[in-house]
Amino acid sequence: MTKLGSYLTKRSVNKSDLARKIGATKQRIDKLSNDDRSKLLLSEAYLIALALKVDVADFVEEMCGDLKLID
């Protein structure tokens, strides 16, 4: 399970409803939730945050907070 998958599960989000709200397919949300090789687009992250009524910056931090710059 990906970070997004854990995030959605923790908040009991219905993936079909989320997909409908952001204009994506349920298959895309499932792939983003389960496949570590899939990449969450910035536009998708923005729309997901809006749909979940969470702060966009907090959501992006939650999804990408472990990324670090290379020295």
Question: What does this entry look like structurally?
Answer:
With 71 residues, the chain is mainly α. Helices cover 63% and strands 0% of the residues. The longest helix has 11 residues. It is globular, with a radius of gyration of 12 Å. The protein starts with a helix and ends in a 7-residue tail after the last helix. The mean pLDDT is 97.
List keywords for this structure.
71 residues; mainly alpha
- What is the arithmetic mean of pLDDT? 97
Radius of gyration based on Cα positions: 12 Å
Unreliable residue runs: none
Helix proportion range: 55-70%
Which series of helices and strands comes N to C? HHHHH
**Strand runs, count:** 0
Q: Terminal Cα separation, in Å?
A: 30 Å
Overall form: globular
Determine the number of helices (DSSP H or I, runs of at least 4 residues).
Answer: 5
- Which percent range describes the beta-strand content? under 5%
Which structural class do you get from the secondary structure elements? mainly alpha
| Main sheet properties | none
